[in-house]
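Justification of resources, computational component.

The compute hours requested in this renewal are based largely on the per-chain cost of generating structure records like the one below. Each record pairs the submitted sequence with a full structure-token output. That output is archived, and it is also reused by downstream analysis tasks.
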Amino acid sequence: MKIVRFASNRTTRYGVLEHGVIRAIKGTPYKLHGNTGKSFEFTGSTFMLDEVKLLAPCLPSKIVALGMNYRSHAIEFKLPIPSVPLIFLKPSTAVIGPEDKIVHPKASKRVDYECELAVVIGKRARSVDREKVDDYILGYTCFNDVSARNEQKDDIQWTRAKGYDTFAPIGPWIETGISPDDLSIETRLNGELRQSARTKDLIFPVDTIVNFVSSIMTLLPGDVIATGTPSGIAPMKPGDVVEVTIENIGTLRNFVVAQE
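The structure output for this chain reads:
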């Protein structure tokens, strides 16, 4: 099931996308998540996909991201393999949706793409056992952990490098009912393949990550965990088009523009 968040006639709604048609649902997709035997309540309204504006499929209170969660990326940076998940936060104000513009800050000499599988939390999660993680996940989506690389190297921590407005593209939708354990994940820049890996290569898999993060902080419905990027990161410049594609989910496309 593809859960979308979209705008039509200046109204924002959630819906389920099927064969190019969106069936609007009442409220948000979080109220009934985890309630066995229940499903979404549809409004009866339908919308054609090509006649609406897809938005970021969730509105996270926080984005918890992982660094160095693929061995290839740690080797790329000449850093040791972490013994526990290396986490940092991206602000909710960085979120943009599919087809939106990534703004290249004037102060940044180098801005990189980072394709990542994102976990979308479906209900309040605190100290979740690994065996019960699936009960707390609404689904999965594509994420681009846009990073100002020079700031990342200059600072002790990564808040500035990862926190600029537009540095958290998410979308195009939330896919439910899939396993995150062995999905192809790729980045294309202007149509050229730049990153390619499989999620089976994650150092810390999704169940371990959710267990670890939820033992530290309470995760709320709509929160996002970005699970890390493989090797192949490189700069983007204004005028570029960047696409993150994940098997069984879809493609998140964004356009890079200069800061005015």
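Residues 182 and 199 are 5 Å apart (CA to CA). The helical segments are 71-76, 149-154, 159-163, 206-214.
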